[in-house]
């Protein structure tokens, strides 16, 4: 077998979370008196952690004010806690893929830039029937993607060499993380970003639907 484990991104890869993320950010922005963002805008704003999402979502008139960013971040965290499962759903074909990987006894893991507590809550809610050997979101004091630190931590936990791990994600950040960690970068075309972005940032392969992954991992 070419690959001995699969590491998934979460938002835009396993789960279609964009509507709940957009609604939560817009509720937070409204509380600060700022206009909201549409879904297509938020697809470009997310992916690099909550603090960066907040920074990007603030309008130009807010300036680069750390206090404003911190306030929006906390409001967004609170709003998302109440909305994280209202419209979110697994992408079509993901349950079938997880079943197939489980039958093959291929270890699975998740690495997200979503806060760690939210990552674990969402995974427990939507994927209780599958075993993931490692689940990590953003933690205080630990670098977020595209830094490869946690991806390599997962490789050690799985006891699999990085080059034997297929990393599946939907953004430039994911492709950069995979390459920095020495993993095989696979771009999910059903997610938030374009094929061009994924290729430009180091995707070794692109897949149009989840079950296509099985042809790559052998």
Q: Can you walk through the features of this model?
A:
With 218 residues, the protein is an alpha/beta fold. It has 2 domains: 142 residues, 3-Layer(aba) Sandwich (Rossmann fold), CATH 3.40.50.1000; 66 residues, Orthogonal Bundle (DNA polymerase, domain 1). 45% of the residues lie in helices and 16% in strands. The strands form 2 sheets. Strands 5-4-1-6-7-8 form a 6-stranded parallel β-sheet, with helices on both faces. Strands 2-3 form a two-stranded antiparallel sheet. Strand 4, helix 6 and strand 5 form a beta-alpha-beta unit. The termini are close together.
Mean pLDDT: 95
CATH fold label of the largest domain: Rossmann fold
- Round the Cα radius of gyration to an integer and report it: 17 Å
Structural category is alpha/beta
Order of helices and strands: EEHHHHEHEHEHEHEHEH
- Total number of helical segments? 10
CATH homology superfamily of the largest domain: HAD superfamily/HAD-like
**CATH top level label of the largest domain:** Alpha Beta
Estimate nothing, just give the exact number of structural domains: 2
- Helix content class: 40-55%
- Main sheet characteristics: 6 strands, parallel
Distance between the amino and carboxyl termini: 6 Å
Chain-wise SSE layout:
Elements lengths: L4 E4 L6 E2 L1 H14 L7 H7 L4 H8 L8 H18 L5 E2 L3 H10 L4 E8 H11 L7 E5 L10 H10 L6 E5 L2 H10 L2 E5 L6 H6 L4 E3 L5 H5 L1
Parallel strand pairs: 1-4, 1-6, 4-5, 6-7, 7-8
Antiparallel strand pairs: 2-3
Helix pairs in contact: 1-4, 3-4
Descriptive labels:
218 residues; alpha/beta; Rossmann fold; DNA polymerase, domain 1; 16% strand
């Amino acid at each position: 077998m070419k690959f001995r484990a699969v590491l998934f991104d979460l938002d835009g890869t396993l789960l279609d979370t964009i509507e709940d993320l957009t609604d939560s950010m817009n509720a937070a922005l409204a509380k600060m008196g700022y206009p909201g963002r549409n879904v297509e805008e938020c697809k470009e704003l997310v992916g690099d952690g909550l603090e960066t999402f907040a920074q990007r979502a603030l309008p130009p008139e807010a300036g680069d004010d750390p206090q404003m960013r911190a306030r929006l971040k906390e409001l967004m965290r609170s709003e998302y806690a109440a909305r994280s499962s209202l419209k979110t759903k697994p992408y079509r074909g993901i349950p079938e893929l997880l079943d197939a990987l489980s039958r093959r006894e291929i270890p699975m893991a998740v690495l997200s830039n979503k806060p760690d507590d939210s990552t674990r809550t969402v995974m427990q809610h939507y994927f209780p029937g599958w075993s993931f050997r490692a689940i990590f979101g953003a933690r205080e004091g630990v670098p977020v993607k595209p830094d490869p630190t946690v991806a390599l931590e997962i490789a050690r936990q799985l006891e699999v060499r990085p080059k034997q791990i297929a990393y599946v994600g939907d953004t430039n950040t994911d492709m950069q993380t995979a390459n920095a960690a020495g993993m095989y970068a696979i771009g999910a075309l059903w997610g938030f970003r374009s094929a061009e972005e994924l290729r430009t940032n180091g995707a070794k392969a692109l897949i149009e639907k989840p079950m296509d992954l099985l042809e790559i991992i052998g």
